[in-house]
Amino acid sequence: MLNNYETVFIMTPVLSDDQAKETVSKYKQLLASNGAKLVHDESWGLKKLAYPIQKKSSGFYYLLQFQAPGSFIADLEINFKRDERIIRFLTVALDKHALAWADRRRAKKTESKKEVTA
């Protein structure tokens, strides 16, 4: 059975755009190769951190929402810990209320994009 999860990770700000995209694609491939289904992914861009992490005051934020077996989460987090490009990460299991909220947030975001392009 696949559970719903959401992971937000912060990449070090010294990465180039290509290196950041390569890092994201690495984790997307890791999800696919372990039987996980990617539901949504979103780049939040470069943001200032609330407090310095590894002497860095900003980082590239990225969100992955996916469905995966529970046993996969430990492997994913081990990969995050071993990757020097990742300075923080957080994975949470989504219940039905969190899934509904995520769907509303995505719908609102797509509506605002449609208004901007119209």
Descriptive overview:
Helices cover 42% and strands 40% of the residues. The longest helix is centred in the C-terminal third of the chain and has 22 residues, at 96-117. By secondary structure, it is of the alpha+beta class. A hairpin with a 2-residue loop joins strand 2 (37-53) and strand 3. The termini are far apart. It has a 4-stranded antiparallel sheet, with helices on one face. The mean pLDDT is 91. It is built from 3 helices and 4 strands; from the N terminus they run E-H-E-E-H-E-H.
The SSE string, one letter per element, is EHEEHEH
Q: How many strand segments? A: 4
Radius of gyration over C-alpha positions, nearest whole angstrom: 15 Å
Separation of the first and last Cα atoms: 41 Å
H/I helix tally: 3
Mean pLDDT: 91
Strand residue content: 35-45%
Largest sheet: 4 strands, antiparallel
| Helix proportion | 40-55%
Looking across the biggest beta sheet, what order are the strands in? Answer: 2-3-1-4
Find the structural class using helix and strand composition: alpha+beta
Shape: globular
List the helices and strands and how they pair.
Layout: E1 3-11, H1 17-33, E2 37-53, E3 56-68, H2 72-82, E4 86-93, H3 96-117
Antiparallel strand pairs: 1-3, 1-4, 2-3
